[in-house]
Amino acid sequence: MSDFSFIGNPTPAVDGGEKVTGNLKYTADLKLGGMLHARFVLSTYAHAKIASIDVSAAVAVPGVRHVVTAADLPDLVPHSRMYLMLARGRVIFVGQPVAVVLADTLSAAADGAELVEVDYEPLEAATNMDAALAEGAPLVWPTGIPRGAGDEAAHGAEAGGDAGSDEEISNIAGTTRIERGDVDAAFAASDVIVERTFETPMVHQSSIETQALVVQPNPITGGANVWGSLQNPFGARWDIAEVLGVPESDVNVYGMPVGGAFGAKFGLYEPLVALLAATVGKTVSLVLTRGEELLTTNPAPALRMSAKMGFKSDGALMAMQTNVIADTGIYPSGLGGFAAMQFASFYPCENVLLESTNVVTFKPSVGAYRAPTSPTSFMAVETLFDEAAEQLGMDAIELRLKSAARGGDAMPDTGEFPTIGMVETLEAAREHPIWQHRDEARQKGHGVGVAIGGWMGGLEPGASVCKLNRDGVLQVQIGTADLSGTPTTFALLAAETFGIAPDKVRFVYSDTDSAPYGGGVGGSKTTYTLGNAVIRAAAEARKQTLSIAAEEFEVSAEDLEIVDGRVRVRGFPDRSIALGEIAGKSMTFGGKYEPVQGNGRQAVTDRAPSFSAQIAEVEVDEETGEVNLLNLAVLQDVGRALNPLAVEGQMQGGAIQGVGWALYEEMRYDDDGQLLSGSWMDYAMPDAVQASPIETQILEVPSESGPFGARGVGEPPVIATIAAIANAVAHATGVRLTQTPMTAPRVLEALEGR
Amino acid sequence: MSDFSFIGNPTPAVDGGEKVTGNLKYTADLKLGGMLHARFVLSTYAHAKIASIDVSAAVAVPGVRHVVTAADLPDLVPHSRMYLMLARGRVIFVGQPVAVVLADTLSAAADGAELVEVDYEPLEAATNMDAALAEGAPLVWPTGIPRGAGDEAAHGAEAGGDAGSDEEISNIAGTTRIERGDVDAAFAASDVIVERTFETPMVHQSSIETQALVVQPNPITGGANVWGSLQNPFGARWDIAEVLGVPESDVNVYGMPVGGAFGAKFGLYEPLVALLAATVGKTVSLVLTRGEELLTTNPAPALRMSAKMGFKSDGALMAMQTNVIADTGIYPSGLGGFAAMQFASFYPCENVLLESTNVVTFKPSVGAYRAPTSPTSFMAVETLFDEAAEQLGMDAIELRLKSAARGGDAMPDTGEFPTIGMVETLEAAREHPIWQHRDEARQKGHGVGVAIGGWMGGLEPGASVCKLNRDGVLQVQIGTADLSGTPTTFALLAAETFGIAPDKVRFVYSDTDSAPYGGGVGGSKTTYTLGNAVIRAAAEARKQTLSIAAEEFEVSAEDLEIVDGRVRVRGFPDRSIALGEIAGKSMTFGGKYEPVQGNGRQAVTDRAPSFSAQIAEVEVDEETGEVNLLNLAVLQDVGRALNPLAVEGQMQGGAIQGVGWALYEEMRYDDDGQLLSGSWMDYAMPDAVQASPIETQILEVPSESGPFGARGVGEPPVIATIAAIANAVAHATGVRLTQTPMTAPRVLEALEGR
């Protein structure tokens, strides 16, 4: 019997009807008066000098209003990809925007873009980490790698030896090094040492909805109104204001419904489109095509991770060491250092050495993708655990349980772990039928592998406002875009707190002018942090509501309860008043009560790390090398499953993307930097059959600080999939795959090398 | 030396730039995808049976999508004009919508509307109060006058003898009667009795912007998104939700900038347009033409007011009596009763008899117009005071001062007057040079007249939200449309309270989903009531801001001050932090402070009556009867002039409209109910020269409950103008005009009757 009235009930998405009927408007649906459509002219070379750009044929196309090149825009310091704008004199990756055609219609813009003639003088390019690190490699940034404030902070004191400005100019954007204890001595004292090098390629977030943005300039203030598919409308407001040179309050950003983001929509072309709109004085819409999306956005980095772990014969973890090389395309990124951190975050160990090197290459810059770098980090740590268990003759889960983090253990950065469910998750995996029957599976020629993934969870202050309307509906505002089903979850939180049915709660989308501060949607933090703001706002609204009713009934608020949409005097069910009537008394000419408007603000500073274990059962075709995923169980500690339907959706979605990482997806570039997987015909994502055998099991180890104990659920389920499948392949075949995707040719090659 | 930093400074409208450059978008500027334009087919008869409607030619016009008649719409009970929708079988005023053509373009809609053939069978109509009251008059509502809940409330217990349902059906929609003391005895004991009958015609609010509305239906929820020029977006939300049969929370209303309203935009065609949009499943835009605006909206009622006052020889006010007949067009209205109330509200008198009769006629229904009915009520009371002073041989201002309401006097409805400035306003008028030199003026053949007008002021709960952004800007939200310069005033209130420069305050327009409840803009209550909400929100935001700074500096918040956009430690000007930096610490990934978001809620229940005296100097051409307004001084107690520029604008605007009432404006109908002044060529409003000689003098008698002592300022300045000019005409010529507008023919007729 649940202690709750509404949370914990599987609740379909409140906006499901609008979405499936196509009634919900996305950014690409917006048609504003006088709006111009933008189409890029993209570089066809990874590295070339731009000798000339001839726009004459393009501007002659009927409907084309402007063809904009770098010469038309201010020459900003390109301290991040967002400020690179259009190529100026030189292109440094295939797909880099060189010019933009602005036209009355999309087709005119496309026609115009085809007619812009760019005369390139090709130059040698280094398009992967080895080529970029080679002696005499062509330099992505011959005068020095640009560094943004954010990037410097991502390295910084803890990281140690950054490649300072007095060093020689190279393609090395930075290095990090974190050492604790005495790693050499610990390895020397180890009975078993396991060591491998893992590689994952650039992988694309590939949402169904591409990047989309509309900017309407305001010639009076110099600011703008902006509509976009954005994970962080408040961040976009800041970025656009900065490039327009106005206070952020003169930019208003409408976070439109987001048709998938996964980390890719934290900012990319917002400053460029804002500058274009301001320059031509017209509303400009940019909606990327699928091909552009793959060529010119910000995928996950390519990582090469050498990793090493030492154990005593009783399974005690002695030392962990990793060295990560991150290929982050043309711009620096802190993701390599983060990958090294993630390797050693959840198995507390006294002797740790974490190093990373960030290499820039002539490819698009990189960004976040669901649990950034963690699939790679956990591929490393969980493969090595598996191998060590094998060598130690121990059960793979028991070995992990010896070292798994528990509440009170030291966290990798600072402080102690709060209550966490890593042990409970591993224990649940141990009891899972697939794991229990792994020997039978092996006898059938299958393999079963297990792995766990952990995520610290992001934090950010945020606020909410909660109003009661005359129809008895509670309106809840938060300042984030609709992403991953949060409206439904927030409706449940408000309903539970206020004491009203969830279908009497409406979630309100607002622009940055009107909305409470929400921060970015990402890092598995939205429900965890903003959920607390919603609860506080709803609680305050409830208190205000009861206070009005108390005055009406001339009783104490403590003697009142809310039942079935009415406030009633406890023990006197006939003395009751509808919630809408209470609201009406505060929303009317001459009314004597203040409107019900609860204010909820939060700045949770305690983390709530969450864990997802996965158990994969595979069959490997030894003739072709094809890996057939038979079963994939996803077990996850979500703290409290506020809406089990949404939680399971996140678990399944994450695991499907994990399957993509493990078996299918790769942004494959040739040596000239040409993208070979530049469409969804070539860039392989798991199809419905390939992704179907996913089973979910929700675990609940409540977090102290989450709303009703909830933890973030978005990131964890993508983390362990590669490792679980790789361990299953090893169980089936005896070979350890260390490179993804584990395609048939790669598996075949590994099998042949046995 | 002012005690304030910002309030009291004449401050130009914050949105002036956007307005004068045409950058600000009004409702008529909205172009939504797939939007259909609506054009009415209007009745050409005041009363007729509709034999048939032939739409065949109209639907054949290219671009015409639908021709809608009553048959296509649900047959709602027409309990108010808003629910009358389209004429069903019968038309009852010239200009009543009979059909609506919906087309892709405005011109196609107009072409279509011209081709709709309505076959009328004309019936006899009663188009003025006398005809409607005559024996055997044609009945506007042969089966009984419809009564809305709102209308019944406007009459009600206090009013006494309502024409109940058991009475004979007539054109009398209702009567009211209020009696205090013994009026007959008081008149019998009076030494001087003055008595006249006054008449004012229907007058139109005539904003520059006509009625305009866009409704986008939501087929999933059954609700809608609405954009409109509305005085009460929250009221429109309710009305539209009711007609669509959905909870109000499923309707979202964007209160667009309003290009003038003056009471006319509290609701009219919102339900019809919402039904049209829902019926055809498309976005529908209705923007009235000027001609439609004059024919088919809701002007001020025509009033005939018989009034009588008795005085003792020492000037003591013994008795007041009035009987009002209100011609309110096709629908009942409480305005006649209100006119009677206004007659006796501000000169406390023990013996009072107030009666009114509401007559319906075959003309458009009526609505509010700035200080509804008060120009007529004060024409009566202030003319009679003038005449009594003459007969008593007393100074006209001294006589008023004897009886003027003072703080502590009984208010007409209930309770006592709070601090008010009626006496101070009359005393200031007494000292005014025009009044002081009235004898010299008379010697030049001019006349000088004085009058005062009073307004109780409306009340309504409302709320505000106040946020601090990373650019150091304070964003202030309230839930009303932009009307009459309130953004600038609210910016001053927030600036003064928070301690920030007004140019660092931004006012945010929101829709009803996102905005705090604001109520209607009208009744001179917006600044008075919502101003308090803004102050509370800003004060809470300031407290939150200081609390963050206190933690940063490790000092008590009491030791901090805000100076020049920075929080600093008192006495240590070097220890300071920019406001934007404080906001930044609460609006960032990993931040430890809650976002600054102040919540301000208010339900002021004390009124703050305000008074405007006016002194007019006129010259009357005795050959033509033309009245030439030479000077008009407007003296007004505004409590506190938060923004003197805005206050003076209100005073001048009100007085200009008062001049229109006095000398020019009349909706003139012939006996068949045809509007003779159906365009701005015929409907005369004062032009720039005619309205130019207005001088303003601000008085400040602070109200106890207003923001920094402010009172509502919008309504009072229109009230006294008729009376001041009429009294000046009497001073110049010896004749008392009792009918407006005081056009040359009317004045000439009066002069001839001397």
Structure description:
2 copies of one chain form a homodimer. The first copy, chain A, is built from 21 helices and 26 strands. The two termini of chain A are 54 Å apart. Chain A is an alpha+beta fold. Chain A has 3 domains: 31-123, Aldehyde Oxidoreductase, domain 3, CATH 3.90.1170; 302-458 and 606-752, Aldehyde Oxidoreductase, domain 4 (2-Layer Sandwich); 460-602, Aldehyde Oxidoreductase, domain 4 (2-Layer Sandwich). Chain A has a 7-stranded mixed beta sheet with strand order 3-5-1-12-9-10-11, with helices on both faces. Chain A has a 5-stranded mixed beta sheet with strand order 7-15-14-13-8. A 4-stranded mixed beta sheet of chain A has the order 16-24-25-26, with helices on both faces. Chains A and B meet through helix 7, strand 17 and strand 23 of A and helix 7, strand 17 and strand 23 of B.
Quick rundown:
Two copies of one chain form a homodimer. The first copy, chain A, is of the alpha+beta class and 754 residues long. Chain A contains 21 helices and 26 strands.
